[in-house]
């Protein structure tokens, strides 16, 4: 065996000998595993992600033994367009997976990145997304530990698709389970809903819509961290309200916990521009996707504490308590309208907003 | 908090209430996160993968604390056609990622599955692949712990793309590092090369080619397991020779270890049908992809032991010692031809066989 210093020296030597990516567009050869792949991976991706684990370029990344049980989650991103106000597919791919770990009560540790690129994609576009991923991962304190790149023929993808899979360490403070939700628990939404979905719709430009709204895409771990501190086991469960929106998340929890939920619709924060766009398009903001909003279920005695904790974080200042868990009707969500009536709020049916994430 | 029994009872109740997937084709709604997504996930995927971790349907799977450092790897699969003699995209997606862990000296534990489906895909085709994944994972003793499904419009994918990301526990016996390869080490190939690539080419049917060859797609962990037992630290490093073939793997190791490799070309096992197809198409079998073959570097004194260990496993009976590590030329691979001459064997350039995996 050779010494760790010698390994480091060789890695350093190899770092200096990195091939450069000179092509202006992605070709099939970039996905073939040979010289062009090496230029793409070692000339573009590895330097941007810049960490010792990835530098070794083994078939797998090796990470130290975690300090507790681990959480694992995966998400593919096919959003169109890939750049939009407030973010892009690169930052979204990092936040989306980090958030699935966070709402499961796990501190995000490492992500894998699987790229499926369309032949002909400008390498400058790819570079921007790689840099967006690196920046988002850096800000979230999570390592981009391993990756893979495939190229498919022109027309067999739409610029690029990204899969991120994340692992995190389950936090000692977390006792989260949808099945632990109880009658009387309060429901909190961490900020205005629908910003991401409406931003994407406007960015597509095929609707005659304008509006000053940006995606809510954000890392939710800092919010989860303060929530766990504030509530401990009184925090019953959380979900991030992505595809299907807040309505679908509420239905999932109602089904899993076999409880009812009454939602005070007037209390749900919605920006006027989002509300207006939804009116125009016949959409309900409750079904529009978010990428940096969570729904939390907390014991009644902890609700105000939880709200204060959420509001102490930058993306949580407009959070609100929006509902309550009831015994009836089990598995169902009722909306209490501003006129005092009730309506059944079902899961999303169909897909009014395809490829939002 | 509620008891574990009560959680189990609710999971069982929910299992009985699973929605059924009745659609004959995949629609955009199956990727939208609402009711149709639930029917796809709970009606098709969860029952096929059938394990307690997935049954909970949280945002992340929770796995016990691993017994050592963990290895993580990711791979996307875009093979065309998705079914071929000897396997399909489903089994390939399991083997590919399991093998990246195995050759890193890590016992595979859990996989995530990220599906990108083309609108209009027959659900029977999807069902077959889900079942192929479940069967391959079951045979490999690895859990399909979490998943994600996205749908893109017709023409924006090619039936289906699959990402699998795997985690494994680094085996105590493994001391693997390309940088530990030393002059005099022997190079072993675990079986005939090129079977997978040529099988895919023939299966595409757009060449006037026939031949009795099946993909070598297989789980390599059993082979790695016996190799680690036989060699311990005398096993320097391994790679599975997928995209770019054996030639590219040898070049990667030569570069990483700053050593030369002399390959005895006549010793490399190649089936006559693969050799014939390569002749016809102007391909070199050394560059053709494999999905169940590994290249191992072992200390000279352990070479015969390593070969015997590999040959004791079902997919290793045609293994061979094919080369030796030299001081010169560093970073290069030389082929010793059957006529006694030498040729430089470079990395793969270009992509003669796109979408082979």
* Class derived from helix and strand content of chain A: alpha+beta
In CATH, the topology of the largest domain in chain A is named Phosphoribosyl-aminoimidazole Synthetase, Chain A, domain 2
Q: What is the total number of structural domains of chain A?
A: 2
Distance between the termini of chain A: 47 Å
Low-confidence stretches of chain A: none
State the share of residues found in helices of chain A, binned by percent: 25-40%
CATH architecture of the largest domain in chain A: Alpha-Beta Complex
Work out the oligomeric state of the chains in this entry.
homodimer
* Beta-strand content of chain A: 15-25%
Spatially, the strands of the biggest sheet of chain A line up as 9-11-8-12-10-13-14
Set down the secondary structure blueprint.
The structure is a homodimer of 357-residue chains.
Chain A (H helix, E strand, L loop, with lengths): L3 H13 L18 H15 L2 H4 L5 E3 L6 E8 L5 E2 L2 E2 H14 L3 E13 L4 H18 L2 E10 L7 E11 L15 E4 L5 H10 L16 H11 L3 E6 L4 H13 L2 E5 L7 H10 L12 E5 L4 H9 L8 E7 L6 E4 L5 E3 L13
Helix pairs in contact in A: 2-5, 4-5, 7-10
Structural summary, described in words:
Two copies of one chain form a homodimer. With 357 residues, chain A is α+β, with helices and mostly antiparallel strands. In chain A, the strands form three sheets. Chain A has a seven-stranded mixed beta sheet with strand order 9-11-8-12-10-13-14. Chain A has a four-stranded mixed beta sheet with strand order 2-7-5-6, covered by helices on one side. The first copy, chain A, has a two-stranded antiparallel sheet with strand order 3-4. In chain A, 33% of the residues lie in helices and 23% in strands. Chain A folds into two domains: 22-170, PurM-like, N-terminal domain (60s Ribosomal Protein L30, Chain: A, 2-Layer Sandwich), CATH 3.30.1330.10; 178-344, Phosphoribosyl-aminoimidazole Synthetase, Chain A, domain 2 (Alpha-Beta Complex). The longest helix of chain A has 18 residues, at 123-140. The model of chain A has no long low-confidence stretch (mean pLDDT 93). Chain A has ten helices and 14 strands. Chains A and B meet through helix 1, helix 2, strand 1, strand 2 and helix 4 of A and helix 1, helix 2, strand 1, strand 2 and helix 4 of B.
